[in-house]
Amino acid sequence: MSPSFDEFAEHLQEEIDQDVIRIYGEKVYERWRNPKFAGRMESPTGYGRVTGNCGDTMEVFLYLEGKTVSDASFTTDGCGGSAICASVACELSIGKEPEQVADVTGEMILQVLGGLPEDDQHCAFLAAETLQAALGDCMCRYTDTQPQKS
Ligand code: FES
């Protein structure tokens, strides 16, 4: 008896999952299956949008409450790697002060993921650049609301 379509699809998914784990590792696989922080934010206090050399565009939204980033989210029209890296960038910023967020780099994102294949590493740098653009916007807005010294 031949397998049902559902059995075939399940088997195919298992093969894909195993390939992703083999090529990218467990940490990337987990993030790929559960891309936390995906989606637009209604009223961010900081917004960054960057198009990378690969042509993919990423957006990062930050919400600064007092001196701490209380929320972050992202969108991307790019590859799976871009979503995974943007998700890590958001995670690394939540609960942090702006000075700490300013220290988030592409290398740091790659480190959290246990590395990426060379062809995908630029996704981490695009995520870091977009996060920094959002942080810059946050800081500009913050400065604009402060009383001017005379
Ligand atoms: Fe463009 Fe991944 S290929 S961000």
For this entry, what is the oligomeric state of its chains? single chain
Strands of the biggest beta sheet: in what spatial order?
1-2-3
Helical region count? 6
Q: What's the total count of β strands?
A: 3
- What is the succession of H and E elements? HHEEEHHHH
The CATH topology of the largest domain comes to: Sufe protein. Chain: A
Structural class call reads alpha+beta
How far apart the termini lie comes to: 85 Å
The share of residues in extended strands comes to 15-25%
Low-confidence segments, given as residue ranges, are none
> What is the CATH first-level class name of the largest domain?
Alpha Beta
Number of domains: 2
Largest sheet: 3 strands, antiparallel
Task: Give the CATH architecture of the largest domain.
Answer: Alpha-Beta Complex
Large-scale geometry = elongated
- Mean pLDDT, to the nearest integer, reads 92
State the helical fraction: 40-55%
Description of the molecule:
It is a single chain. The protein has 150 residues and is α+β, with helices and mostly antiparallel strands. The protein folds into two domains: 1-25; 35-145, Sufe protein. Chain: A (Alpha-Beta Complex). It has six helices and three strands. It is elongated and about 80 Å long. The chain binds FE2/S2 (inorganic) cluster. FE2/S2 (inorganic) cluster is lined by residues 52, 54, 56, 78-79, 81-82, 123, 126. Residues 52, 54, 56, 78-79, 81-82, 123, 126 line the site of FE2/S2 (inorganic) cluster (FES).
Protein topology:
Layout: H1 5-24, H2 26-33, E1 46-51, E2 57-65, E3 68-76, H3 80-93, H4 98-101, H5 106-113, H6 121-145
Antiparallel strand pairs: 1-2, 2-3
Helix pairs in contact: 1-2, 3-5, 3-6, 5-6
The structure holds FE2/S2 (inorganic) cluster (FES).
